[in-house]
Amino acid sequence: MLASCCCSQKLTSTEQQIIVVASKNKCKMAEPIKVVVTGAAGQIAYSLLYQIASGAVFGPEQPVYLHLLDIAPMMGVLEGVVMELADCALPLLAGVLPTANPEEAFKDVAAAFLVGAMPRKEGMERKDLLSANVRIFKEQGQALDKVARKDVKILVVGNPANTNALICSKYAPSIPKENFTAMTRLDQNRAQAQLAAKLGVKVQDVKNVIIWGNHSSTQFPDASNAVVTVNGAQKPVPVALNDDEFLKSTFVTTVQKRGAAVIAARKMSSALSAAKAASDHMRDWFLGTGDRWVSMGVVSDGSYGTPRDVVFSFPVTVSNGKWKIVEGLTISDFARKMIDATGKELDEEKNDALEVCK
User: Fold this and answer.
1) Which among 149, 215, 276, 350 is annotated as catalytic?
2) Does the active-site annotation cover 215?
3) Which of 24, 77, 196, 244 makes an SS bond possible with 41, Cβ 3.0 to 4.6 Å?
C-alpha cells in the first residue's frame, strides 16, 4: 500500500529534476582511472593530491585510484598523507596505493604527474643537476615503458622539467613522444595574473598569454597575442595596456623571476601554485581547452624556428585528448631574439643530458 501511495503522489518539478540528475549521475559514473603522483610525500603533492581526488582535474564523474610514489625513507611521511586522504572522505577516491617501487606505481596508469626530482643545491653545476635527474627519469621512463598504459598522459613537474621530460621519453620508446609534456602552466598563470592586475580586470578575463621555451629564467612570457575582455568587449592586451615598454621589460622579468621571488619570501619553492598549475595542465589535456590557448612543454617539431627534438613550451589547443600547436602567429624581432635564447639553452641542456646518458 505504501509503495502505491508514494507512486501516486505527484512529484514537483524540482523533485523530478533531482531524480533525473541522480539517474544521469548513476549512469555517468565511470570506472576508476589509475593516476600516479611521484614525490608524493612532498610539498607540491600535498596540495595536488586533494585536487586530483576531489574531481578538479578529471571531472566530477571520474573516480580515481591514486598511486603514490616516493623513496623508501619517505614511506612513514607518506603513510600520514594516506591517512589524510582517507580522512577527507572524498567520493571520487576509489583507492590509494603508497609505494617506493616504480613498476608498482606506474602499473596501468592513465595519467602520471612526475613531481619528484633532485632539487638544485647551492654550488651545484647544471651538469651535476642533470646527472642526478637523468638517473631518476631514466628509471621512471623504463618503468612507464614496461607497465603503464600506452596512451598514458605524462606531465613532468620536477625541474629541469623540459629536459627531464625529454629523458623520460627517451627511455619509454613504446609510448608516443607527444604523450610526454613539461609544465609551463605555472608561468602562464603567473603571467595571466600579472596582466590582470595591471589592467584592473579579473584573471579569467585575460586569455591567450603564451610562454615560449624553457621553464627557467630564459623563458619568454609573451602578451602580444593575448586578449582581454573589458566591459563585455574583447581587445588585444597590447592595445588595452598601451605600454609596450612594460610588456618587453617589467612584465617579462617579473614572470621569469617569480619562482626566485617566492623562494626569497617563503624560504621554500612554490608549492600551492605549482600544484594548481599541474592540475590545470592535466585537466585541459583530458577535458579540452575550448577557445583558449594554453602553454605546454611538448616535443618540438621545429615550429616557429625552434630547435627540434627538445621539449619546448608552445601555445597549444587541446581537443579529444590531443594537443596541437597554434599556427600562423607573427613573431616580432624582439620575440625572435627571446625565443632563440631559450631554445639555445634547451639545446645545451639536451646535449649535456645525452652526454650523461652515455
Assistant:
1) 215
2) yes
3) 77
